[in-house]
């Protein structure tokens, strides 16, 4: 059994969980509680009432507003960091650089950090401390995207021609999901990112941007369509291949495959076809918990390939690249 501490007791940590047995487990707390290799033993938050409420809800024994106090009490194997985006760097740096209690693994919410200086520093101190940082870019843990990646790499989808996607909630905070998913699936660079529209988000420093970009390999188009979530939330992706079109709708609740065929008059058109892509496996959080526990058991860093900070670094650099566009 591996002991876990959560730093930051908000939504993704599990503050509003009403059950620990959902088939679509999302929060860190629910992930730990529902995996037989973890014991969620501690939590930390800067707000006293929040950490007390979280500890009561999640039945956590050790809780405090002071990080060092909880780490000393628990001596955790793994630490989840689920604090606001702009605090990630300082907290990881503190844990890996100056706190006497050293975990074996850090599980860090996205975006991992705020700029290239912070990124390079985190990579350096992670290597120096020999403590891996796994970033919760959740679609890397999603069975649907794992199946798409496998089919693409096997050549069954043909050439990637273009991508259209819609998102909400800030380019850095939420757009990073789209950029990282594209890079994870296709190992391709996104270039020439040009801002078309800016929509205010809840974070005034992180507007929701509509961006037109290109795929580096073949100059195919990529559209990141920003959406104002005061209406409702949207997260859709449309991948256009030489063999057809794959549409993933409403936060992976549905996918549609349309194959390219030649009709009776010689036109190339799209028609619905069956494509088996796994949608019934474990939730991304529970798949992440399996991977994290496997590493803690074996110490084999290869277990974490594809999920580490170094693996998502290029996605972060792409996100920041657009900030310099005019």
Distance between the termini: 51 Å
Strand content: 25-35%
The side-by-side strand order for the widest beta sheet comes to 8-9-10-7-11-12-13-14
Q: What is the number of helices?
A: 9
Tell me how many strands there are: 14
General form: globular
Structural classification: alpha/beta
Q: Main β-sheet: number of strands, strand sense, barrel status?
A: 8 strands, mixed
N to C succession of SSEs: EHEHEHEHEHEHEHEEEEEEEHH
Which bin fits the share of residues in helices?
25-40%
Low-confidence stretches: none
Q: Give the oligomeric state.
A: single chain
Task: State Rg.
Answer: 21 Å
What's the mean pLDDT score?
93
Supply the key terms:
326 residues, globular, alpha/beta, single chain
Written description of the protein model:
The chain has 326 residues and is an alpha/beta fold. The chain has nine helices and 14 strands. The protein has helices spanning 28-33, 48-58, 67-74, 88-97, 116-129, 143-153, 171-186, 284-298, 309-323; strands spanning 2-7, 38-44, 62-64, 78-81, 105-109, 133-136, 160-167, 190-199, 208-215, 221-226, 236-241, 244-249, 254-262, 268-273. An eight-stranded mixed β-sheet has the order 8-9-10-7-11-12-13-14, covered by helices on one side. A six-stranded parallel β-sheet has the order 3-2-1-4-5-6, with helices on both faces. Helix 4 (88-97) packs parallel to helix 5 and helix 5 packs antiparallel against helix 9 (309-323).
Summarize the structure.
This protein has nine helices and 14 strands. With 326 residues, it is of the alpha/beta class. A hairpin with a 2-residue loop joins strand 11 and strand 12.
């Amino acid at each position: 059994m591996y002991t876990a501490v959560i730093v930051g007791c908000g939504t993704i940590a599990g503050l509003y969980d009403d059950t620990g047995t959902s088939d679509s487990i999302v929060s860190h707390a629910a992930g730990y509680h529902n995996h037989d290799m973890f014991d969620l033993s501690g939590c930390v938050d800067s707000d006293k009432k929040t950490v007390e409420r979280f500890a009561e809800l999640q039945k956590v024994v050790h809780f405090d507003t002071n990080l060092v106090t909880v780490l000393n009490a628990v001596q955790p194997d793994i630490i989840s960091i689920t604090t606001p985006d702009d605090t990630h760097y300082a907290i990881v740096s503190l844990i890996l650089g100056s706190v006497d209690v050293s975990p074996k693994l850090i599980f860090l919410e996205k975006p991992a950090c705020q700029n290239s200086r912070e990124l390079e520093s985190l990579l350096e101190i992670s290597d120096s401390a020999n403590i891996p940082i796994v970033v919760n870019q959740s679609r890397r843990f999603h069975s649907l995207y794992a199946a798409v990646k496998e089919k693409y790499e096997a050549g069954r989808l043909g050439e990637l021609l273009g991508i259209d996607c819609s998102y909400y909630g800030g380019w850095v905070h939420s757009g990073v999901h789209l950029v990282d998913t594209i890079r994870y699936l296709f190992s391709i660079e996104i270039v020439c990112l040009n801002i078309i529209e800016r929509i205010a988000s809840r974070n005034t420093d992180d507007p929701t941007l509509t961006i037109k970009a290109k795929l580096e390999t073949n100059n195919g188009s990529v559209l990141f369509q920003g959406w104002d979530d005061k209406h409702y939330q949207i997260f859709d992706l449309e991948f256009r291949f030489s063999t057809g079109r794959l549409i993933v709708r409403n936060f992976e609740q549905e996918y549609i495959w349309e194959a390219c065929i030649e009709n009776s008059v010689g036109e190339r058109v799209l028609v619905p076809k069956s494509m088996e892509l796994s949608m019934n496996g474990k939730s991304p959080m529970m798949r992440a918990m399996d991977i994290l526990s496997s590493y803690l058991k074996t110490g084999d860093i290869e277990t974490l390939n594809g999920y580490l900070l170094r693996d998502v670094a290029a996605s972060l650099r792409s996100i920041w690249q657009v900030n310099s566009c005019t």
